[in-house]
Amino acid sequence: MIRFILSDLRRLWAGSLVVVLLVALATALGVCVVLQERALRLGSARAADKFDLVIGAGGSETQLVLSSVFLQPSPLPLMPGEVLGKLAADPRVDWAAPIGFGDSFSGYPIIGTTTTLTQNLSGGLAEGKIFAREGEAVIGAAVKLSLGGEIKPMHGSLEEGGETHTELVYHIAGHLRPTGTAWDRTILVPIQAVWHIHGMEAEEHEEDSGHEHEAASGTDSAEHGHEHAGADHDRHEHHGRADPDAALDETWTAGAPGLPAILVKPKTIADAYKLRQEYRSGNTVAVFPGEVLTNLYATLGDAKQILVAVASGAQVLVAASLVLVTVIHIGQRRRQIGALRAFGAPRGAIFGIVWLEFFFLVAVGIALGFALGYTAALILSGMFSQTSGVAMPVVFTREDAGLATVLLAFAAILAALPAVLAYRQSPAQALRA
């Protein structure tokens, strides 16, 4: 029987190849959707795990997380600098690190922050040292620059005709270990250097602390597209002064300039919930990145259902087409089937030959579809990781084994239809046809 099936497949190789490719493409679409959605969930969840609590000015919680954790371009309002001083002195806080979306260099965002966040972000440095002066910088694992290299921050993007700052040139002092997050593509600099280079002094902030600026740390980011509103920003944007050899002062006071976000590491889980509740009133909002992602996953789940429905519809159409083609094929092979019956082949053998041949083609198509879907998901995840910096792991789970089982069971039922038609054919009628 096996030899007969293999011989038949070799004789009808073109039609068999078409069947396998149709099944493979329909299966690959569904597999790619499932794997890519899972990769996005895993990648974003691992990126958010780096940060326990994020505090920002009142506004969209989702946008606060996307901008501060995933570094997505969007303007954020500033909160009073006194919040940083209050958090730094809070006994419930292990550390609080301000972040300021500064300028950019060679397409990499420049983020103003502190030595504390730099030390804790990746668990140490791959090489070099933490910045200790205003003119030093630490680069992420995915930044293709070398130690000692110069970084000339640009105000605005190159495509938009941005200007290169002349107030300060950073020198790369260290290189972080990989984190699998968007922060791998960042250039970290002292936040006080960002304040100084843009003329953000404590006195100026105190005068304007009630205003909301559509920026972070009073600067436009070429990478983040932050724009400023306010005459004071226009007056001081390019007239700041910075000393590259100045020592860092990370003793925060109530007079610190405004900030778009503060990353907080509470000492305990209980402290985290207390801080979240305390800073969710007034002019600030505090969020757990994981909670915000849960809401995003709900929306993503709806989109996944739609895509899975589309993929399932494609598979049903392919299945219907295959049944139609197979029924026509069985009709064309009536003489062959009649000859087999005339030579003494039992009906069960005829049923087994037709069923096994069709099931084999569909099973090969399903296996090939899983391979194609996995490959497509890897390519898409790689493209997304390259642009966002977030690692997107593409993995199979037991859920996928269940999907394969369902598809194979459906193929077994589908293969039974042409087999039943062949089983019921009379040898005399087949030979007369």
Key traits:
single chain; 433 residues; alpha+beta; 10-stranded mixed sheet; 12 strands; 52% helix; elongated
Quick description:
With about 425 residues, this protein is α+β, with helices and mostly antiparallel strands.
Q: Can you characterise this structure?
A:
There is one protein chain. By secondary structure, this protein is α+β, with helices and mostly antiparallel strands. It has helices at 2-11, 13-48, 61-68, 82-88, 115-121, 191-197, 202-208, 231-236, 269-278, 289-332, 334-342, 347-388, 398-424, 427-432; strands spanning 53-57, 93-105, 108-113, 125-128, 136-139, 150-151, 154-155, 163-164, 170-176, 187-190, 261-266, 284-287. The strands form 2 sheets. Strands 1, 2, 3, 4, 5, 6, 9, 10, 11 and 12 form a 10-stranded mixed β-sheet that branches. A two-stranded antiparallel ribbon has the order 7-8. Helix 10 (289-332) runs parallel beside helix 13 (398-424). It is elongated and about 95 Å long.
